[in-house]
Amino acid sequence: MGHIIEIPLGQTLSTGKPILWLNPEYQADKGFQSSELTLSDIHQADQRLRRFAALLQQLFPELLSSNGLIESELLSATNLQQQHYPDLSGRLMIKGDHALPVAGSVKARGGIHEVLCHAEQLALEHGIISSNDDDYLKLLNADAQALFSRYEIAVSSTGNLGLSIGIISAALGFRSVVHMSVEAKQWKKQRLRDRGVIVVEHSDDYSAAVAAGRAASNADPASYFVDDENSPRLFLGYAVAALRLQQQLIEQQIPVDAEHPLFVYIPCGVGGAPGGINFGLKQIFGAHVHCFFAEPVQAPCVLIGMLADDKAHPDSVYQAGLRVDTEADGLAVSMASGWVCSVIEKMLSGVFTVTDDELFINLFRLCQSEGIDIEPSAAAGFSGPAWLTETEPGKAYQQQHQLESSMHNATHLLWTTGGLFVPAEEMKKFAQRGAQLSAQ
Ligand SMILES: *Cc1c(COP(=O)(O)O)cnc(C)c1O
Q: Is the pLDDT of residue 2 over 60?
């Protein structure tokens, strides 16, 4: 593993070799304040999801057991740790968003939150409900359905955001349009079409699909565009995960404090989902949580975005000589959200990059050791613990933040971001590829 921070980083990145980049602007103690958003905004997003819980249970029977909350388990990864992280002191855990109900990926909290914001606003404006304390099941009656059917919700996606937005907006009765970029898997498009969603296929990359989808939606006053590059509503929905994780850590009696640091490794595409989680965790745990994002070697758009002097206008990975091509469709993004990069400027500890081979090997290892199936994107974080504990930049980070003496008490959390809906035959191919690579 190489450690390369020297400029020109563009040229170093363009070799396509994995690296760990430490964010020089990270501030452990005060860097988690944002000028725009606060912990109270996250609580409001959580409250909104709870207001809709009864309605969501009606629409999605899989939510009956969780009383309408869309949440995943916090799992210990004992077998995985014993077999594949034998030298890791501290505890290895998994935040299982691969099994997040309704949308099957980390996109569920953010995407559903944003659609609910819009539906709630329309319902209030048109008198379907009179206040936030009203009975939200009224959104299922004929008046509401007639109202929502006059409006469109559109989004651009590499696959999973489209699933999230498409499924919830169609279920609520909206006209739903999903613009899919070139890497979107066929089965994800089919799953949406089966639910009455209009899928527009683009032959270009994700940033281009966002530009096209945004332009088409803006031309229609009845259309609302979920803008993955600039969306506080998505971001706050993602951030709710931090409140839920806090609760789960308490229930499992896992402390997070100066003696018990928490390291979180999250796969990253445009930056919204990991950024929201990073923001939320920082509001709760402050200096005691350390968030690292994982990006494909060919698509480290947030790493490049964080290098920019003007965070609001990030360069694309093409400008660094990279090609975006990766089997991690959820992470195949050429340009980061400049807005997210600005918000997390001082909160993000660092970014490491991963090859596609590593994704399949780690996917296979998880399946073998824990019986958990995930999609390739969701395996991107698995090299995080080794970066932090076995490499020069990782050790430098520990030293900088005086973590060496508490590493044996650390919790290393792998965030598995998607996989629930992957068809069995696709899953089998992924695992076979991982098995072959492991045997080499
Ligand atoms: C979208 C996605 C991510 C990353 O989220 P961004 O908001 O694009 O950064 C990670 N994993 C999976 C499986 C995803 O679908």
A: no
